[in-house]
Amino acid sequence: MTLPLVSAHDRAPDWKWQRVIGILDRGEIATTPEWDTDKGFYWIVRGTEFLQSYRVDPNPATNRDLLLRYADIFSAYRIYTEEEENYLQYELEATVMARVPADEIAYTANLTTAAMIAYEELFFDVRSLLDKDMYIRNFVIGKEIQNIKKSSLATIWKLYGYFFGPHMLKAVVSRTSNPQFVHTPQGVSSSLDEDIMGSFKIACAIAAKNPAGGERDNQHLLGLFTKFAEIAKMADMSANSHHGQVKEHIDSMLHDVVFTIGGTMPKTGEQTDAFNRLRSTGADPSFHQLAELAFTGNSPSLNATESLKYPPIPKKQAK
Description:
With about 325 residues, the chain is an all-alpha fold. It is built from 17 helices and no strands.
């Protein structure tokens, strides 16, 4: 259980709203800047006034104050108190944890920036504590992180938003991985293939968050993923793989091999004039000698060939 206190180590994300309820319903101590901070005092006072007005008449058609004085809080309150499965609330909160600015969240959620700020201040005040990993894990994401189920959408989305950021969160929420708009009929098939694989990986990642895979169907899903990974590894090692281990081996070879013709030997810093030698030598280097020059900067056998001298042709004796 988290406490509605700004200074508590387990401070509730909606601590200000809990203070509003406590003041109105339980006779708790009135808000003050010293007790709730200056910002907290401002929002608790506004929240108290809003809730008093709302309880008198919750219909904005007849209670004009709800839209004239408290439009931001009224919009935020409707999201917070939605009785159905509140996917908008889950996504809003997870996006805050993904460190997306309030005005960007408001735009994509079709809210006013003021309403989004009101929601954060009164109902999900965590942005200033996002650098405190232990607090976020235990009191914002919550204990359910250790026993995630398929129905744990609020926890799953917060987890991915906080640890992986907005792009990963968008993929998890939409259940698509980097979707691309299909402009032609010819692109449908390949897009479906990519979408299936992306959705499969997302589902496997969520299933893997539960110890031992959780439910039986999740265990089956992870089993399929294991087989897929094995097949992908075998394909990667095949001769047809141009993005896998073959490429890595070539990159490694090119990194380690020392090419020195006309340059400086990387390991010793020694200057080489092998290229100039090839231009000036009268010898005809073999492939083996060329390779020695390229990789070592020197060819003993070529040196011996260059120093080879033939006996002079004797001059004809005069008659």
